[in-house]
Design goal:
It is built from 5 helices and 5 strands; from the N terminus they run αααββαββαβ. It has 180 residues and is of the alpha+beta class. A 3-stranded mixed β-sheet has the order 3-4-5.
């Protein structure tokens, strides 16, 4: 005896057949739509005797303009990234101030500024009437302070600053002169 039910398509088989039919229909519709689009574009840019030349020219110019803008943007981006790379390299090179076991010597202006910021803070004196100069590691202190003790403290603090080879003190105490 032959099983009739086995020869009938199952519900699942019918659904798959319907899905396959829909896919074939969609593929055919997509191909038809693509062919129509190509035909319209060909008519618009090639076969229109009156306007096709101008349209081709405009399309070409727009394409060139897009390429030009993108290349300029790429150049700007490259310059930006070059600056970022320089900054990273600078930070990496200056992350540790010690080179070959020795600190790099400060220039005269930097040394004078360092002595001014460190020595006056350490000595606890006013810098209102004192000027500081540095030449080849020698620090020159000029001006006046209130007492000999302040002068000694400032000279000691300036000599303790790293990078100072010698301190030349031309400081004096304030003298009160009376009109006679």
């Amino acid at each position: 005896m032959v099983n009739v039910m086995a020869k009938l398509p199952t519900v699942r088989g019918r659904r798959e057949a319907q899905i396959d039919a829909r896919r074939r229909l969609a593929a055919g519709a997509g191909a038809l739509l693509g062919a129509f689009t190509v035909g319209v574009m060909a008519e618009y840019f090639l076969f229109d005797r009156r306007h096709a030349t101008g349209r081709r020219h405009i399309a070409r110019e727009r394409g060139v303009a897009i390429v030009r803008r993108r290349s300029r943007a790429a150049v700007r981006r490259a310059k930006y990234l070059e600056g970022v790379a320089e900054g990273v390299a600078h930070r990496a090179a200056h992350a540790v101030p010690v080179r070959n076991g020795h600190r790099e010597a400060l220039d005269d202006v930097s040394l004078a500024q360092k002595v001014e910021s460190v020595a006056f803070r350490e000595a606890g004196v006013s810098k209102a009437h004192v000027s500081i100069n540095a030449e080849n590691g020698v620090v020159y202190l000029r001006g006046r302070l209130e007492s000999e003790r302040e002068i000694e403290e400032l000279v000691r603090a300036a000599a303790a600053v790293e990078g100072v080879a010698r301190v030349e003190s031309m400081l004096h105490t304030a003298r009160f002169q009376t009109a006679g």
